[in-house]
Write a structure and sequence with these properties.
The chain has 13 helices and 44 strands. Helix content is 17%, strand content 35%.
Length: 741
């Protein structure tokens, strides 16, 4: 009776709030054109600063991307390549599908491209082949094979194009058209020039080869997957069951063995770099020094408590440790070094003081100057102007809810830095090679993504995509019913300040109490509370708020961009401090006069799915219903690099893996639970949900289940996403009843 009355009230309130605007439905949320407007991706500046290129989705299908340019000289924006005209029916092989899943590429058509160093041509893959576009000329097809050519790029001088085919490294000399194979033996368990699974998925390294600056040779990895456990992964699709033999490095098991080789561009036998006495390591980063003779690589220990920067002579193969970053918990991989030309100095990003900051180092690993300081984090080095003596970087120095571009002097004091992005919000920037201009893609809550071309001092030159939220914007019909976020803070049990966002439905009357839903991720390397426009998955809270739910999101301890001390409490203790913080958030929710304390839901995806389960089972008194999507349930079933970073080795004493699994707490589940999972998930295997299903059934614990045949971790597809979110909303409506009680 209670839910029926609440649902009726929700319908009446929904009708009232939408009197001045159209109803925003889930079907419309996932359809084209995107409610975010004509947002663009893949922004790149031509090396000479003459053009800005980008990828833009079609109006009829925003996921199908074409290549566009903005010409600085004439101020014109034009399409350079129509992906459908070039390759009408693109089909991806399984290797490419897996690679895109690792890189979180969910678009189709042209998804990546590269500028020639001379700014006279563009290079891009499409349909498994390579295409070359000279400016002012016609597209030229460089390959036409049954195999997929991947990881393509120009050589530093622009004379060659390199790529991977069938797990070997190739180059094409552009002047002659000659194709040359530089490595052999690729195939099966051996791959040359390819990043291994954990490098792509967890280390943000999606390549396995690196050109020397003088174009004379290439450094490449040779990986052997034979030590990695071979398992049968079952992809359950609408046409039946496909068995895929996959080598997956489960926590505590063997990783690939890896070698680093140097091969001349003319071909020949590779020379091998000495990676050190310990074979069981991670090769986190590789780059060349400006002399083209020295290779710098970052070597991380298996327990990830030490990260070393090593310089190695490419001919002799011997290396020396320049510096080491150490931690009692784990070291984060923060990026590559920037080597100054003609000087034995480099700019280095380090968390040695507890926050990610920039330092000027010498070749003996000594700090020559601290460049940034404060209780905030640098999230990326964007460029170094050696002549002008300035360093450019992105950081959250103005507060953890926003990200901006800043500059600091190589010679001045850290506190004298300058903020270059002027609009409030979350900024992603890219600087031209000559550091005279930068592109700025940004958004804020209530402000759809905008893209501008700015001078290096922050003055706007032109909009590349202004995307005004006017009457012609796709979101305009729904703007009258828009629910804005309110941001706030509360304290964790140890006094740590936690940031949250709250969406309060329109039409709340004094004295009414409404159900609340917690949207959670909660895991490391992520931040959900920020001043940014919501996308597809982030758009669902808007649907919830419009349907009579208070929506609450809290960034708990263990998450990113707040310093190492904020992250470390999850070490060997996942699913505990995060739940404690979320329960503190729920206590705050229940204290609000417009929240019904007996109708609190929670949902999340991936780590958020895991968090949903742990919250329902470890704090059953706090939550009344939950939806867990693609959850980890047992950390022994997840990969080495991610899991062991935070949990240690499964053989370590202390029972961390058992304590952080959901299974010891299954019997505590009392609230309604909806489990959802893609049945071809190759990141969080479907096995996680299957084992939980069995445990729940063995204990006679009721639950609901929705699986998606043939779908991977993201559960992609317009129809599928519509079905998923409709199912989630219907579940909460049944068990919480949106609207006032």
């Amino acid at each position: 009776m209670k839910n029926r009355f609440a649902a009726t009230m929700a319908a009446l309130i929904l009708f009232a709030t939408q009197a001045d605007g159209e109803e925003l439905t889930i079907d419309r949320m996932v359809a084209s054109p995107s409610l975010s407007g004509p947002s663009i991706a893949g922004l790149k500046l031509a090396p000479d600063g003459s053009r800005v290129t980008f990828l833009k989705g079609k109006d009829a299908d925003f996921r199908q991307q074409d290549l566009w340019e903005y010409n600085v000289s004439d101020g014109a924006t034009r399409m350079l390549v129509d992906s459908v005209n070039l390759v009408p029916d693109e089909e991806l092989d399984e290797v490419e599908k897996a690679r895109r899943e690792r890189q979180r590429i969910y678009a189709s058509g042209i998804v990546e491209y590269y500028w020639s160093p001379k700014a006279d041509a563009l290079l891009f893959p499409l349909g498994g082949d390579l295409f070359y576009l000279p400016l002012g000329g016609e597209v030229r097809r460089l390959t036409a094979t049954d195999a997929f050519e991947t990881d393509i790029r120009f050589s530093p001088g622009g004379g060659y194009v390199s790529f991977i085919r069938d797990a070997d490294l190739y180059v094409i000399e552009l002047a002659s058209g000659e194709e040359r194979r530089l490595t052999t033996g690729g195939g099966g368990v051996i791959s040359n020039g390819v990043a291994e699974f954990v490098a792509q998925e967890e280390m943000d390294r999606d390549t396995g080869y690196w050109w020397a600056p003088d174009e004379s040779k290439i450094a490449f990895t040779r990986i052997d997957e034979s030590p990695v456990r071979l398992v049968d992964r079952y992809e359950l699709g609408d046409a039946g069951v496909t068995t895929i033999a996959q080598r997956y490095p489960f926590a505590g098991t063997d990783n690939v063995t890896i070698k680093l080789g140097i091969v001349p561009i003319t071909g020949g036998a590779p020379a091998w770099i000495d990676l050190g006495p310990e074979e069981d390591i991670y090769l986190a980063r590789v780059q060349w020094l400006p002399d083209s003779e020295t290779v710098a690589f970052q070597r991380q220990s298996r327990d990830q408590k030490k990260l070393e920067l090593v310089f190695a002579d490419s001919a002799a193969g011997k290396g020396r440790v320049v510096l080491a970053e150490t931690a009692e918990t784990w070291t984060n991989i923060l990026g590559t070094a920037h080597f100054l030309k003609g000087k034995k100095r480099f700019v280095w990003l380090s968390e040695r003081d507890g926050y990610a900051h920039l330092y000027l180092m010498d070749f003996k690993g000594r700090v020559r100057k601290r460049l940034t300081a404060g209780q905030w984090a640098v999230s990326g080095l964007k460029g170094v102007d050696e002549d002008g003596g300035r360093v450019y970087f992105q950081a959250n120095a103005d507060g953890p809810l926003e990200r901006h571009l800043y500059a600091v002097s190589l010679a001045g004091a850290p506190e004298e830095m300058t903020r270059l992005t002027r609009d409030p919000g979350w900024h992603t920037t890219s600087l031209s090679a000559d550091l005279s201009v930068f592109t700025d893609k940004f958004s804020a809550d209530g402000v759809p993504p905008k893209v501008a071309l700015n001078r290096i001092d922050g003055e706007r030159i032109a909009w590349l995509e202004e995307n005004p939220l006017d009457q012609d914007h796709p979101y305009a019909p729904y703007l009258p019913g828009h629910v804005a976020k309110a941001f706030g803070t509360l304290n964790a049990e140890d006094g740590t300040v936690l940031h949250y966002s709250l969406m309060r439905p329109k039409g709340l009357a004094e004295g009414e109490r409404w159900p609340a839903i917690v949207f959670v991720y909660g895991g490391p390397l992520a931040q959900t509370v920020r001043n940014q426009w919501a996308g597809d998955r982030g758009g669902f809270p808007q649907i919830l708020a419009r349907n009579g739910y208070v929506v609450f999101t809290l960034d708990n301890r263990g998450m990113a961009n707040r310093g190492k001390a904020f992250e470390d409490p999850v070490y060997r203790n996942m699913g505990h401090v995060e739940v404690t913080d979320q329960v503190a958030g729920v206590a705050h929710l229940k204290s609000l006069p417009f929240v019904d304390p007996e109708r609190i839901g929670i949902y999340g995806w991936s780590y958020g799915g895991y968090m949903t389960l742990m919250a329902l089972m470890r704090a059953p008194e706090a939550f009344d219903a939950g939806v867990s999507i693609a959850p980890v349930t047992n950390w022994r079933l997840y990969d080495t690099h991610y899991t062991e970073r935070y949990m240690g080795h499964p053989a370590d004493p202390g029972g961390a893996y058992e304590r952080s699994s959901v299974f010891p707490y299954v019997e505590n589940l009392s609230a309604p639970l909806l489990l959802m999972h893609g049945m071809a998930d190759d990141n969080v295997f479907f096995d996680h949900t299957v084992t939980l299903i069995s445990a729940l059934q063995d204990r006679r614990v009721p639950f609901e289940l929705m699986t998606y045949p043939g779908k991977r971790h993201r559960i992609a597809g317009e129809d599928t996403r519509a079905h998923l979110w409709r199912t989630v909303l219907a579940f909460f409506d049944r068990h919480l009843g949106g609207g006032a009680d």
